[in-house]
């Protein structure tokens, strides 16, 4: 959606004061049951050394995105086998791009630019998982400790990498039900890479759904013109509680050190790297680059939200969940596979 920048900023200012439905004081202590990781308070956390060296792509436009380098191994292998089979990448690209759309089977997400962007963003996540260095994780993102559905999580859940289609369905379902935009998908990827870098964890079979959900949660509040409240996601994900969503959001924010700013230059880099990923994998990428006006709006809004989050953190507010928070559009119920 569009909407005037001022109106959107004012709306966000109002939302930002409310949307972090914090369920416990921001002391950063691990949960009383002792199940969760001990997270230091935001002010006590050290800023990792390598971030100062401008090596973090989610903050610095000159650092290359993690997903693109993770995908290169597979791209090289693919090229090698194409060469052996005497198929030139040029022929492949031509064959794919001559189709009016390659997502004919997919009727749930109607806009082709949204569909193709989600396809590429989830491919980036797929490569993150497939070519990860290890399995470092945190309890708050673990699906066994915090299941998203009532179905029992199998004991070997951490052993099997999800395929691209599985990740795509999960993200597509959330975007479709919450009516999110293609730009929001790109901001989701920025937050995901920022989390992995700051928290020094890996996205793997045991945590990918909750990490992706947490990143979507934040991105949809910061960037989407239509506020999506945590309770809306609970209507989409029937078995998850608002308390669980709030706790995950709080941990995610603390791990990001409340840095939810997305400079226009960083957004542009992720945009162009996703286009490269699409080209390498013979996918369409139909999203237009951000206009200057929209890019500046993104930057302004993410800064505004960041300030609001920091204020909330300082105030260590306790917010009870009331009917007032239940405003918002009635969402489509989603079935997640």
TrEMBL record:
Region of interest called Disordered, as start-end residue ranges on this chain: 1-89
Listed Pfam families: Cyclin_N
Tagged with keyword Acetylation: no
Ranges of Low complexity composition bias in the record: 1-11
Record field: compositional bias (Basic and acidic residues): 12-23
Stretches assigned to the Cyclin-like domain: 169-254
PANTHER family: CYCLIN Y, ISOFORM A (PTHR14248)
Protein's name in the database: Cyclin Y like 1
């Amino acid at each position: 959606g569009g909407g005037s920048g001022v109106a959107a900023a004012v709306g966000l200012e109002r939302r930002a004061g409310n949307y972090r439905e914090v369920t416990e004081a921001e002391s950063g202590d691990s949960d009383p049951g002792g199940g969760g990781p001990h997270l230091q308070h935001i002010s006590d956390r050290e800023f990792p050394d390598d971030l100062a060296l401008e090596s973090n792509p989610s903050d610095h436009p000159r650092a290359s995105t993690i997903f693109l380098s993770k995908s290169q191994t597979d791209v090289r292998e693919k090229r090698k086998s194409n060469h052996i089979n005497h198929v030139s990448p040029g022929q492949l690209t031509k064959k794919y791009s001559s189709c009016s759309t390659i997502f004919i089977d997919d009727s749930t997400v109607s806009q082709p630019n949204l569909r193709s962007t989600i396809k590429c963003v989830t491919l980036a996540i797929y490569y993150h998982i497939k070519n990860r260095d290890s399995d470092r994780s945190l309890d708050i993102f673990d699906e066994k400790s915090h299941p998203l559905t009532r179905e029992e999580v199998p004991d070997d859940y951490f052993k099997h990498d999800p395929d691209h289609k599985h990740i795509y369905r999960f993200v597509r379902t959330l975007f479709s039900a919450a009516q999110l935009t293609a730009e929001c998908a790109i901001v989701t990827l920025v937050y995901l890479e920022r989390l992995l870098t700051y928290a020094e964890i890996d996205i793997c079979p045991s945590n990918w759904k909750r990490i992706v959900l947490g990143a979507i949660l934040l991105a949809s509040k910061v960037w989407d013109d239509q506020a999506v409240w945590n309770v809306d996601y609970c209507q989409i994900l029937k078995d998850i509680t608002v308390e669980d969503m709030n706790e995950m959001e709080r941990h995610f924010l603390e791990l990001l050190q409340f840095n939810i700013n997305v400079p226009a230059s960083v957004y542009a880099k992720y945009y162009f790297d996703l286009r490269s990923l699409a080209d390498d994998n013979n996918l369409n990428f139909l999203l237009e680059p951000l206009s200057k006006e929209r890019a500046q709006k993104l930057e302004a809004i993410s800064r505004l939200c960041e300030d609001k989050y920091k204020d909330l953190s300082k105030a260590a507010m306790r917010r009870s969940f009331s009917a007032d928070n239940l405003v918002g559009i009635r969402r489509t119920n989603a079935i997640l596979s």
